[in-house]
Specification:
Length: about 1750
């Protein structure tokens, strides 16, 4: 079937060219029925312009098509509208409008996904008030405490909105120029009347048109007046988005249904996901219906099918234009407030059907039926119009509120994200406090929201409570969506009103009542019953209920805040709450016989109820709200001022405390292990009950309710009820307290825990006074106390503290306002984070029984505090701190401390404690009793201190405890018991505390006696004298104490300084530790050479020193045997890791070379890919290592059979972990003996002689080789030099074991370096071994240079060992290869510098295309193959090395001069030219002679020489390293430091003249022809003329890219970054390559590429081109560094960005401003440059197995 033929574009264009928008507009102006005219125009043109078939064409073609379409649309459709509107040429008209009308002082910038937004934590009305980056940078908030987040898209900048900001509402750019224009002047009046009239009519036509089309439901029809002139049979098969089907399902289905490629299917799916719909087929009706049928059929199996419609092409065209037209409206109104106002009027004008029929209403009510793209466009228009106009924002808000219920219901039925729902606009309306209050008053918004919410949750139990356990997945999904309503409620309530109107009071209280209905449905939900005997079968659902509770927590708190601002509201709310609660609890006492309890002479009646046997629920929101309101009554003093208005008399404290007490007892029983059979769900619930997210409106309020109840009851009654609920009453009421009463069904340990928990509860009921209203404290005191107790556990980071504190509705904890008063900040080092430490004076406020401590926290804090006291030389008693006074309403709470029942309890526990514990009591129990006693004494002391001398202090605890205990017990008084326990040996731990108590009793007694007048003093005759002595003693003690404190302070300071120093210089310490280690091992196996110091240090040539016959002893880490390194001995190896590297690359654009064709013999000076070798320095026997590796392989095979998965290392690729240090390795380097000393007996030939002879040898070999391979007879047989045996057979100087290991490493270097399979026959094998040696040396030298470390002696020993064995290995590796191959390599290498006579070698590269250091290393290492044939008996190999060095150095000089660029013009040096400068000039002159105008004319020798010296230095340094390791020559002292004289020392070490130019000057006749040949190589001219890669010297070291100091700059960059593949789309995970600065679209289908036959994400793909497999990235939205190695390995690394508290923010969750920490960035850079990334990944994956399972290749 063929596609219908399209109109050729040219025909279209011709028609269009003659079109005049001005004429059309004039016609419209003149016509009678404008709508008809416009519709007619649209009917004709829209389908012709926007109906160009499907998007199956080539990508580029498609783009061009789109551009044409856009142009035609602008010219034929939009331009006439503009001409009409403005009555003339649009550009001029618009400019005029802009001047006349002025535009809004609101920014209104609509946020893109991922764009940074800023909120001020000091000035924003709520956290939803945000600024765009431009506004933020121009605002005052830049200097405040701000929060930065990335936008999820939607929403706009609030700059200029006075209600959004407490101060500084406008940035500099949006400050209204004329403050007076603020007045509510109608902007329409500023428009010319004609424009007003025309805009009114054209806006209403266009808006009507757009609304009609977007809400159109027929597939084949068009609205009246739009039917096209000729109707064609062309249709689209339109696929719509849903959130049910996955990407993969859609892609698979499409491939089948429309027969497209995978790539096209991906593109369709991406567009559907982004725009909400996409046509997947264009053609006649039947053609499209077919596709539809296939799609529907194949997606309907598991779920509801994908939505597909076959739509007429004209309809689709009109819908497209409708969107364009809305966009146009949005733009045009930006020119004038008047136009905006008119559009608003048009939009909200009621339609013909009355209520809800305005165009905006129609759009909103059809929202859930529209596709994503359409919704986005009209939402954006609403934001640009209605929300930007003060008057209409209000009117729109009313429409929104009126439709609220319907919109929300639609949203529940829809499956799209809230982000693309019109309901999301609530944040723009409800967060404006005046609007919210207006809507509350006029539209009863609060009630509407709550009602809508409650109605959505339909499952209820018999009592009408929510029931979540029967939810289906569908309902659970809905439950997720319905929670957004709570968000709306939160917006409405976020700021309490500054003034209340009577109406507001009424409506709020109505809303409050509705809210109580909601709470009523929660009160008592999810009840639990203790499981006995069997374990529960299925964990009950509990999360939904807690989710609801968590979401409502802030709402409940906000309700209370609102109440607290108006006493009338508070009183009414209290009454409503109380009566609602009474209704709820109406049935509580029914049907139960009350029981009567008596203890210590008191009696009380209570319910018969046991938590352990009956239903109990954790959800008691009604009780808790009442508790909160009750505390408010106290805080606002309403209770004391207006008691007559309160129903306090109706309160039954017994009822009030009943349910909260049951809940607390439940917790205690769970702790005691009585509920084990109820499973984890209960444990989780108890956890959340206490958790910081819930506790404010759960645990805290239950405690408050007990305080409320206790303050209204007789303390004895209260305690007896508590005892009874804890099921402990009989334990304490038993006749004989000496013997513990044991209930049959409980074990002793459980009961002990219950007693501990109960005592703890009493401590909290009396002691927790930091809630304003309970105690006389300020709100910040509460926060300070929380922080203090967190820091008593240990020093903590800012984020840890934030997590431990509850947030309010504004996401604030108040932490920053108090933290500095209680803690001091300690900055982080290069790792770790900044910490807060408690200031010492605050540890006195530590309360061991702080109510928010978990048991674990408590014991940690106790331990830390006792340790601290011991360190300070204090006793270890941890008495309670002085509590703040209680508020009057709660004043009677203190009586609990001295009531008879508590004294009886205390007496009982103390009595038990007399005997060492046999399970009858516990230390915790005793500790709590002591704490209670201490609290009582503190209370008494405080009352004594604050009371006047004559006042009677009613609190008489100290006298009560002297009374003997209850009869019939024979025990003594509490005091007597304490005195007897003081010295009990089994209570040593508590001795300090008991002593503290007894001292306290003494003090109180003294105070009481002193205040009760002189009469008492008679009985104490000796007192005055005693007190004088005491005073003396005290004074001495005080002085001693002062001295001690001073001493301690000094000590502390010193140790602090020391710590600080170590922290600051951590690197240094580590370094020096490594150095020590290095020194230690160095002496171990290579004793310092005892060369006479007078001998010059020379590393190369016949004069070289070293390479002595030193014995090398090493130890195998596997078998611990010692072994000497010998060529013929047992092979020893070093674990090593080989990887490809681009760290030194000067050319990242060079693609990945084809491994089969690559000739690695000549390294290009751009060093684009090298092979790097590293080692952890651990040595093994080759045989031991082989055994180990085989074991690893077997283990891996077994593991793979058992469970499929990855390890951090890839055994199949030869990877393993070093058996000692677990460092990632993939091969081993054999250890070889030192080089022999030079043969000083022979006479060494001069350069000329050597060159001549070598040339001859090379030529002879070359010809022989050719003869052997081709059999062709040579015409001229080159003369074979004297005693040079071409066919000589070598004897291998290595044992087979060593030889095998040489082979192993060669093969690894070959395999990794070329990424090929092993092939021993490949002539490139030895080259790769030399290559990794040269490259590793080069990268080591760069690091040393850049870190300004000395060339020798500063490497850690593992690196030193690695380089040394690597170099010695490479000088021997030629023996493993066929000798002919190596000889051939040498001849080819030599031919770069020297012409080989008669050779028929392929052309050697020009010297600009060869890295000279690599050339040096390769030729030196391959020379041996030639030399070994020389049977002249002269071991002149050393002079050959030196000559090669000379030659290559000269070539490098020439190379540097050829690439010299004038660069920046620096000052010329005055004065005499030095010899070097003159000679450089001369050489440069010669080069110019050869090359002519290719080289710039430079006569300044100083500049030339400066450049040459700087460029040659790295070469010389690397050469020195190379010969040092090869010949084991010890370096001169100068090179062990970085002082002056480096150059000279280096030259002399290399046996070169320090004036390098002499190398050329002294051999001019010999070298001149060579230089001529180099320059005349055609390649040179080509490169210099830009025909190749020109590398200039000195090569600068690579660094990671520069990062901005402020992280938000990066976020902004990333937000404007679009995916390069899917036309202008925002990237979801923009990721920055730290190596080259490339921004990538990571973790997304759109940017997957195929690498080696597998689809990989953008990061992995980039890694292969940019880093040869290794990648470092910054994931910008997550603020995370990503390391990737190959396809399967990766890890995350802390980013180099820190907030002011010295913490990173992965995921940007906290939103504190982030700044670059350059030390951390340098650390990452160093890792990269040291080739340590793979190792870091290996260690990270070993430490964290979940990292292994991540599909890194998809990133
Ligand atoms: Zn802005
Ligand atoms: Zn602004
Ligand atoms: Zn601010
Ligand atoms: Zn061994
Ligand atoms: Zn190791
Ligand atoms: Zn890159
Ligand atoms: Zn992409």
């Amino acid at each position: 079937m063929a596609e219908p033929s399209r109109d050729p574009p040219s025909a279209l264009s011709a028609d269009f060219m003659s079109f005049s928008p001005g004429d059309t507009a004039s016609r419209w102006l003149a016509c009678a029925d404008l709508q008809q005219e416009v519709y007619c125009h649209l009917a004709e043109y829209v389908p012709r312009i926007l109906c160009q078939g499907g998007g199956m064409a080539e990508h580029r073609e498609e783009q061009r098509e789109e551009q044409r379409e856009e142009l035609a649309l602008q010219l034929l459709l939009l331009a006439p509208l503009e001409w009409f509107l403005l009555g003339g040429e649009p550009a001029a008209g618009l400019a005029l409008l802009q001047q006349g009308g002025g535009s809004a002082a609101l920014c209104g910038h609509v946020f893109k996904v991922g764009e940074p937004t800023y909120s001020c934590r000091e000035c924003a009305a709520d956290p939803t008030c945000v600024l765009c980056m431009q506004c933020f940078l121009a605002s005052a908030h830049r200097h405040h405490r701000y929060r930065m987040t990335t936008s999820g898209g939607g929403g706009f900048c609030d700059c200029g909105d006075a209600e959004a900001w407490k101060t500084g509402p406008s940035c500099q750019n949006h400050t209204p120029a004329d403050q007076n224009r603020e007045t509510e002047e109608d902007p329409v009046s500023l428009l010319p009347p004609a424009v007003e009239e025309r805009s009114c009519s054209i806006f209403s036509i266009i808006l009507q048109y757009a609304v009609d089309l977007l809400t159109w439901e027929q597939e084949d029809q068009l609205p009246a007046g739009l039917e096209p002139p000729q109707r064609s049979d062309s249709y689209y098969c339109m696929l719509f988005n849903d959130e049910v089907h996955t990407y993969e399902q859609v892609i698979y289905t499409l491939q089948k249904a429309v027969n497209c490629s995978q790539k096209e299917a991906v593109s369709f799916a991406t567009t559907v996901d982004r725009d909400g719909r996409k046509s997947v087929r264009f053609g006649d009706h039947q053609f499209c219906e077919q596709a539809k049928a296939v799609i529907v059929r194949s997606t309907s199996r598991q779920s509801k099918p994908l939505r597909v419609q076959v739509m007429h092409s004209a309809l689709v065209a009109h819908q497209c234009f409708a969107l364009k037209a809305l966009g146009w409206l949005g733009q045009i109104i930006q020119y004038s407030d008047g136009l905006r106002r008119i559009l608003c009027q048009v939009g909200l004008r009621p339609g013909p059907e009355g209520e809800n029929s305005s165009l905006v209403d129609r759009l909103m009510l059809n929202d859930s039926k529209m596709w994503k793209g359409a919704r986005n466009v009209y939402h954006q228009l609403l934001m640009n119009s209605l929300l930007m106009d003060r008057k209409f924002k209000k009117l729109f808000a009313i429409r929104f509120a009126k439709n609220y219920r319907r919109l929300q219901t639609d949203f529940m039925e829809d499956d799209h994200d809230r982000l693309v729902s019109v309901t999301a606009l609530s944040v723009q309306l409800f967060t404006v406090p005046t609007l919210a209050r207006m809507l509350m008053v006029e539209e009863n918004l609060m009630m509407t929201i709550i009602r809508t919410f409650v109605d959505q949750l339909r499952h209820r139990d018999a009592q009408g409570r929510f029931q979540f356990d029967r939810y289906t997945a569908q309902q659970a999904f809905k439950f997720g969506r319905v929670q957004s309503l709570i968000g709306d409620l939160k917006y409405v309530l976020i700021s309490p009103p500054p003034q209340w109107s009577q109406q507001l009071r009424t409506k709020f209280l109505d809303g409050f009542e509705t809210f109580l209905d909601l709470l009523r449905c929660m009160q008592g939900m999810d009840p639990v019953v203790r499981q006995v005997g069997q374990h529960i079968e299925m964990e009950p659902e509990w999360e939904a209920a807690f989710t609801l509770q968590m979401k409502l927590t802030h709402i409940i708190t906000m309700m209370q805040e609102w109440c607290s601002t108006d006493e009338h509201v508070l009183i009414e709310a209290y009454k409503k709450c109380l009566s609602a609660l009474s209704q709820c609890q109406g049935g509580l006492p029914d049907g139960e016989q009350p029981i009567s309890l008596s203890l210590a002479g008191h009696t009380v009646d209570t319910f018969r109820y046991q938590v352990s046997q009956e239903k109990v629920s954790i959800h008691l929101p009604m009780c808790r709200l009442l508790a909160g309101l009750h505390v408010l009554l106290s805080r606002t003093e309403v209770a004391s001022r207006l008691p007559e208005q309160l129903p306090l008399g109706e309160l039954s404290p017994h009822l009030l405390i009943e349910l909260p007490l049951r809940c607390l007892v439940l917790c205690a029983q769970v702790h005691a292990g009585m509920w084990r059979r109820n499973g984890f769900s209960l444990i989780n619930q108890i956890y959340y009950y206490h958790n910081v997210k819930c506790r404010v409106e759960m645990f805290d309020k239950d405690l408050a309710m007990l305080q409320v109840g206790a303050s209204m009851m007789d303390p004895n009654h209260f305690l007896m009820i508590v005892l009874s609920r804890f099921e402990l009453f009989h334990t304490f009421s038993a006749a004989d307290l000496r013997r513990r009463y044991r209930e049959a069904n409980k074990d002793l340990a459980q009961q002990n825990t219950l007693i501990e928990e109960m005592l703890h509860l009493i401590i909290m009921v009396v002691g927790e006074r930091y809630v304003p209203g309970v105690g006389q404290v300020e709100p910040l005191d509460e926060v300070r106390r929380e922080i203090l107790h967190q820091l008593c556990i240990r020093p903590m980071a800012h984020s840890e503290l934030v997590k431990a504190l509850p947030e309010n509705g504004n996401k604030e904890t108040g932490l920053e306002r108090v933290i500095d008063s209680v803690a001091s900040f300690r900055k982080p080092g290069v790792t770790g984070r900044g910490l807060y430490e408690l200031r010492p004076e605050w540890s006195k406020r530590f309360d061991l029984y702080f109510h928010h401590y978990s048991r674990a926290d408590q014991s940690k804090a106790e331990e830390a505090q006792r340790k601290l006291r011991r360190q300070n030389g204090e006793d270890t008693a941890l008495p309670p701190p002085r509590p703040p006074p209680l508020c009057p309403l709660f004043g009677s709470l203190v009586n609990l401390l001295q009531c008879d029942t508590l004294l009886a309890l205390e007496g009982a526990v103390l009595q038990w404690a007399v005997e060492p514990s046999g399970g009858g009591w516990t230390e915790s129990m005793l500790q709590r009793v002591l704490h209670l006693v201490a609290m009582a004494l503190l209370e008494e002391q405080q009352q004594l201190e604050s009371s006047g001398a004559d006042e009677d202090v009613s609190f008489t605890f100290s006298t009560r405890i002297t009374r003997p205990g209850e009869a019939p017990s024979t025990s003594g008084s509490v005091l007597a018991l304490l005195e007897s326990l003081q010295n009990a040996p089994h209570l040593e731990v508590h001795k300090d505390m008991i002593t503290w108590i007894l001292k306290m009793v003494g003090n109180i007694k003294t105070t009481r006696e002193r205040t009760s007048g002189s009469s008492v003093s008679v009985s104490h005759g000796r007192r005055p004298e005693e007190s004088v002595r005491d005073k003396d003693k005290a004074e001495r003690k005080r002085k001693a104490e002062m001295a001690r404190l001073r001493r301690e302070k000094v000590m502390a300071q010193m140790s602090e300084m020391q710590k600080h120093f170590i922290n600051e210089n951590k690197e240094l310490f580590q370094q020096s530790m490594e150095d020590l280690e290095a020194a230690a091992t160095a002496t171990e196996h290579s004793p310092p050479s005892l060369e006479p110091t007078c001998v010059a240090h020379i590393c190369v040539g016949p004069m070289r020193v070293g390479g002595a016959e030193r014995r090398q002893l090493v130890t195998c880490i596997l078998c611990q045997e010692e072994q000497e390194v010998r060529g013929h001995g047992r092979a020893m190896v070093l674990a090593a890791f080989i990887q490809r590297s681009t760290v030194l690359s000067k050319n990242r654009s060079r693609g990945i070379p084809d491994p089969e064709r690559l000739d690695p013999l000549f390294m290009h000076p751009d060093l684009s890919v090298g092979v790097h070798t590293a080692s952890c320095g651990h040595i093994m026997h080759a045989t031991c290592w082989q055994r180990y590796f085989e074991a690893v392989q077997q283990k891996e095979q077994r593991r793979q059979q058992r469970l499929r998965g990855h390890t951090s290392y890839d055994v199949e690729n030869g990877e393993f972990l070093c058996p000692l240090c677990e460092c990632l390795s993939n091969t081993v380097i054999p250890l070889l003996p030192h080089a022999c000393s030079p043969d000083r007996s022979v006479e060494h030939p001069c350069l000329e002689t050597w060159l001549k002879r070598t040339n001859q040898q090379a030529a002879a070999l070359d010809s022989t080789h050719r003869k052997q391979s081709h059999g062709a007879a040579q015409q001229v047989e080159p003369a074979v030099p004297d005693r040079f045996r071409v066919g000589f057979d070598l004897q291998n100087s290595f044992s087979s074991g060593v030889g095998e290991m040489i082979n192993t490493f060669s093969m690894s270097a070959y395999k990794v370096g070329l990424k090929v399979n092993p092939n021993e026959q490949d002539p490139r094998v030895p080259v790769l071994s030399w290559s990794t040696c040269a490259y590793t040396l080069q990268s080591t030298e760069r690091l040393l240079m850049d870190e300004k470390k000395p060339l020798f002696g500063s490497l850690p020993c593992r690196q030193d060992d690695c380089l040394s064995s690597l170099t010695r290995f490479s000088s021997a590796c030629w023996t493993a290869a066929p000798i002919r191959t190596v000889q051939n390599h040498f001849i080819r290498l030599l031919s770069v510098l020297v012409p080989i006579p008669d050779s028929q070698l392929e052309d050697a590269p020009c010297i600009l295309d060869v890295d000279m250091f690599h050339l040096l290393v390769y030729s030196v290492l391959s020379y041996s193959s030639l030399h070994s044939l020389d049977q002249s008996g002269r071991r002149s190999v050393d002079s050959a090395h030196l000559h090669l060095l000379h030659l290559v150095t000269v070539a490098h000089l020439v190379q540097v001069l050829l690439t010299f660029t004038t660069g920046e013009l620096s000052m010329d040096q005055d004065g005499e030219e030095s010899e070097e400068e003159q000679l450089t000039c001369q050489l440069y002159g010669r080069l110019r002679d050869h090359l002519g105008r290719c080289l710039p004319d430079i006569s300044c020798g100083w500049r030339l020489w400066r450049c040459v010296r700087a460029s040659v230095l790295p070469f010389l340094r690397t050469a020195a390293l190379f010969f040092h390791y090869m010949n084991s020559a010890s370096p001169p002292a100068d090179l062990l430091g970085t002082g002056p004289g480096q150059w000279e020392a280096l030259c002399s070490y290399l046996s070169l003249p320090s004036n390098l130019l002499l190398l050329y000057q002294n051999q001019r006749t010999l070298l001149e022809p060579l230089i001529h040949r180099w320059c005349c190589h055609p390649g040179v001219g080509q490169v210099l003329h830009g025909g190749g890669v020109l590398v200039r010297f000195p090569r600068e070291s690579n660094r990671l890219i520069d990062l901005p100091e402020d992280y938000s700059i990066l976020i902004n960059q990333a937000s404007s970054f679009t995916c390069p593949r899917s036309g202008g789309d925002k990237s979801r995970a923009p990721t920055l390559c730290l190596v080259c600065g490339c921004m990538l679209c990571s973790q997304s289908y759109c940017c997957q590429t195929e690498v080696e036959g597998e689809d990989v994400g953008a990061c992995t793909a980039h890694t292969f081109t940019c880093g040869a497999g290794i990648g470092l990235f910054l994931r910008v939205r997550e603020s995370q560094v990503l390391f990737v190695a190959g396809k399967t390995k990766g890890c995350f690394y802390p980013p180099p960005y820190l907030d002011d508290y010295g913490e990173t923010d992965p995921g940007l969750k906290r939103g504190n401003p982030l700044h670059l920490c350059s030390e951390r960035y340098q650390k990452i850079e160093r890792l990269w440059r040291q080739h340590g990334i793979a190792e870091v990944i290996g260690h990270a994956q070993e430490a964290n197995q979940t990292l292994v399972a991540i599909d890194w290749q998809h990133l």
